[in-house]
Amino acid sequence: MAQERRPVPPCRGAGTQPGAALGSGLPPAPARPPSREIRACPGSGTGRGRRRLRRALGAVASGGDAARRAGKKEPVLRGTLEEPLPRSCRRLRQSPERCLCLPFPGQRRRGAERRRFPGRVLAGPFATMNLGDLGAEVIKVERPGYGQTGPVVQRGGYDSIAAAVSGLMHITGHEDGEPVRPGVAMTDLATGLYTYGAIMAGLLQRYKTGKGLHIDCNLLSTQVACLTHVAANYLNCKIEAKRWGTAHGSIVPYQAFKTKDGYIVVGAGNDHQFVTVCKILNLPEVSKDSRYKTNTLRVQNRKELIDILSTRFSEKATIEWLQLFEGSGVPYGPINNMQQVFSDPQVLHNGLVMEMNHPTAGKIAVPGPGVRYSEFAMSHPKPPPLVGQHTVEILKSVLGYEDDAIEELLCTGAVAQHEVR
Amino acid sequence: MAQERRPVPPCRGAGTQPGAALGSGLPPAPARPPSREIRACPGSGTGRGRRRLRRALGAVASGGDAARRAGKKEPVLRGTLEEPLPRSCRRLRQSPERCLCLPFPGQRRRGAERRRFPGRVLAGPFATMNLGDLGAEVIKVERPGYGQTGPVVQRGGYDSIAAAVSGLMHITGHEDGEPVRPGVAMTDLATGLYTYGAIMAGLLQRYKTGKGLHIDCNLLSTQVACLTHVAANYLNCKIEAKRWGTAHGSIVPYQAFKTKDGYIVVGAGNDHQFVTVCKILNLPEVSKDSRYKTNTLRVQNRKELIDILSTRFSEKATIEWLQLFEGSGVPYGPINNMQQVFSDPQVLHNGLVMEMNHPTAGKIAVPGPGVRYSEFAMSHPKPPPLVGQHTVEILKSVLGYEDDAIEELLCTGAVAQHEVR
Description:
The structure is a homodimer.
Chain A (H helix, E strand, L loop, with lengths): L10 E2 L25 E2 L8 H9 L33 H5 L3 E2 L12 H4 L15 H4 L4 E4 L16 H7 L20 H24 L3 E5 L1 H7 L2 H10 L16 E5 L4 E5 L3 H10 L3 H5 L6 H6 L1 H12 L4 H8 L6 E3 L3 H4 L3 H5 L3 E6 L3 E6 L3 E3 L17 H8 L4 H9 L5 E2 L3
Parallel strand pairs in A: 2-3, 4-5
Antiparallel strand pairs in A: 1-12, 6-7, 7-8, 9-10
Helix pairs in contact in A: 6-7
């Protein structure tokens, strides 16, 4: 592991000749099985050397939008070779294991944003390639905002815009209030998860057929697919969707209640659970009230009932209610803030905080992942690579270049190696 | 395809002898590769016949919570053999292609809910089985609320509760308002997508090793993993999360604005885009104002700037703004309701409305899926099966039972066939 918090050394070869021809006189890269570990950032390119690289590399992920580079530099990651990281640390979870650095031939065309960081070359020859050019075994993934074709195909992909156009914002928010966006980019994340499954399915297909394929995931399609019952209600019954706050359209009570010092979510999935809720709240007269006997009646008399329950919930602190509901069989839970989430015994038990040493930022922590397999343990988490951290390693071990050829590529600025010490 | 909107015929053999011993005297089912098409609902069971079925069946999904059975019957699916469908139509997208019907030995133990539907036997012997019992090739998936082990492992899994405990509700809502839940069960959906990728990864692993495995996904872990930058900000910098409405914490403007008749989301990912936004809004003085020159300044002076922009946006209808922003390069989009989503040209172009004929409900439509592959077309969408619709077919073609053995199983009530006509 590299030392911590050192000043970033200059990048060998990076950006010196951004337009230099690639790989002239080099032996062709031997064919290798595609690797999923390598990132090449989006861009375009021509030339024999690049074509060789293209052929030899595997699954390709295209890059993100400008929002990813906005905002303050991430405090714990300041000083990496990459573009200024968003405050988000998001890259920490999205990065591949290794990173190859090529010059970015479209640098000038990318305008002011690129010109501001002339030494920070981010390259990748894949974005404009067809599957055929990439080789028959390659699994190519595209994940734009709207799709590969169609009336608005040229528009960029942004979580907020997709959440708006897909209707997710329309249905999120208080009943009488304005639309809201989920507090994290759930549309973006769901698209990533959809893509992850699709890549696995593509790899499975390749195992069976020996052939690669092109996968099309996009933000709009993902979020529309995730509208589930809200969409089905409209498509089949022309029931227009509405906002419900934290409540449920057809189960009452099933929502958040304000307590003395926070919020608790409580649901009564059936009449028996409703009686239990009333017992815990010490409201026996409510459970006997003929207006609230069944869920159908409770949906009809939602407002009066929720008013009664809300008043009662506001009289005790969240921790008191949690103790009272424990073991009751009723679905319940507090609305946690981050401090509470990351001190929750079950969150800690599930191993959801991953710590790792970053080459320049030192010890960092990120959440997840949310899946475990019985037959293999989680590998030790690795920090995101610096741009060009694995250039020589990839050229040698994945692409099969000899040392002198790699040296030539570095000297001409065709590739760059970030020298982590 | 079955005729439409017929009354549901009785189910042969269903529920007549719920506790009957299975498969006595029958030849053992031949070994077959596991199938992913078959659903068996959760429950428990013993007996030789069941063990045979267990061995021969493949990936297993456990069932949902009580919320799934609450609310009104789904209007377009009334009359199917299954438990009353939620208004959601959710099952339409979650169902497998074929359905085998076995008796449910835990019927009495499941209490009132099960007793209400004595003829509606839903069975499945998998929920309490260990991987070893299921056979070495099986991929077993568990998807509870909190995980396989840990302090609150016994609690049920509910989207709303997981969204609360994981902090998603804490960060969703208006800046000065109360917490909100995303308008669809995004935690549930993200867990489903995580699980789908994990199953694909498990199948890939089985291709490589010949061995099955046990996959653990759960709602809490999924949503905590999906907290991304919000979690990383807390874990690394102890920055507590807050609610942002539709806005972005570090990009201004990047949020929804109220128009004369709706909402539009507009973002300025960089200073150039901000100038464009001001030009479209006919606010040249704002783009020249030194308080709003850079994004950092705009974040500092967020309130004043958003007030100015909001006033201007409220002066025209959404459609007028959409026309003005078209081709500007600025991220923008309307907040659509369901009617607008499902008449959006790109949504229609992406083929996101899937129509199909349901055996009892007639023509129905559901959204999705959100992924396409170059090497194979979407198969014609199939409606969810009725419970027991494919019992004989599966016993014969998957499990290799002879006709007379199947007849015996049906006669004793060990299995049931829904006779779709």
